[in-house]
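G., the chain you wanted modeled:
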Amino acid sequence: MEYELVAGLEVHCQLNTHTKAFCGCSTAFGAQANTNVCPVCLAMPGSLPVLNARALESIIKMGLATNCRIAPYSTMARKNYFYPDLPKGYQISQFEDPVCSEGFVEVDTGDAKQSSLKKIRLVRIHLEEDAGKSIHDIGAETYVDANRCGVPLIEIVSYPDIRSTREASLYLQKIRQIVRYLGISDGNMDEGSLRCDANVSIRPKGQEAYGTRTEIKNMNSFKSVEKAMEYEVLRQTEVLESGGRVVQETLLWDADKMETRPMRSKEQAHDYRYFPEPDLVPIEVTSKMLEQITSSLPEFPEARRDRFVAEYKLPRYDAEVLTASRDIADYFEATVKTSGDAKQSSNWVMGEVLRTLKEKAIDIADFSIDAGRLGELITLYNGGTVSSTVAKEVFALMMASKDAPSKIVNDRGLAQVSDNAAIETAVAEIIAANPSQREQYRSGKKNLFGYFVGETMKQMSGKANPKLITDILKQKLDAA
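Predicted structure as tokens:
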């Protein structure tokens, strides 16, 4: 029997507020264990929570960006469960009245030739605090780091609209892109800023009723989400094909063994004994607050991509790559302001800049060549001051220097040679030194022209104007 995947994702996104959801402790990642704590996030008797206003602003931004209904009135709740890294014995979250509900995200499941948009509906986006972290790999004991307790999260819950593991990965990438564009989270899965649980079930193709679902946890990359879901689909298929029954449970993904393993039987909502948080007043979102937040929203990726195509006359592919990241898109536009050439700026950002970022595993914010200097380098290249080969050499030198590219070119004598007499001399020497290739070229082997261009450029240390080399070589080689 042919089965169909039915999946929904629960995405936890850590907000980049400076302080925690209900206290003034720092949210800085990487601090010494149990130092970013206070009586509130450690649940000391008599301590009281106070809602972080920026966290509320962040979730409203996310709701607006994902076409959600923003509730004018919502409440916080206590979600009760017991675990060593949860000092309170409950988590402050939301249940019946989330801030955001009934939105959707569109992902492009098409290919390079044709776009195909798939709408994935959202049940809710709610605000909650994070738990601490249990550390199991120090000797035989388990340790608890409470630094993460109380860090503000938004949980984005989708309907079971996902029908392939690729759709799941695209959806998760879209969520990360949105939170980064909004500036509410860095979305780093390897640091736990973005975490994903997948609810996975299968059903015979054509059947409308859902199968029994399992929840997969511990997936820390887009690839692991796809692999874990692929494994679970195969596992559930084998269970059903052998006459068994899929059990509703929570599973952990083991990336080393590439398999899921049972963690616990799945809780239902009533198992958490939700009840209203008595220490926090209800949240009210006024129309004035909504207007202010709406007016602060950035230009979103799809709109920016379309503008790049219309305003800068870029191919759609270039625009897609450049707008995948808000910071890269900002860097590109700043480069164009200096260079005045959108296509050359696109070529350099998509080529040398993105390659360098990948090689060094850094973000554009840490890149040593600012957009103004890159724009000046492009201007030097377009004006014929440097050849393409030398421009790349200057780019490499700019990585280790704060000097303007024009100063680097002047100090190192890298300016392009456009002296006809010098180029004619070099061309004559190359032709004279290669009589065999010259005769082959004149006998009809025209592809040897590139050989002569390369040799001449080599003799002139890559500084000669390539157009002049081409023109002079053609004139000399084609002469009787």
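The first helix runs from residue 53 to 65.

Shout if anything looks off.
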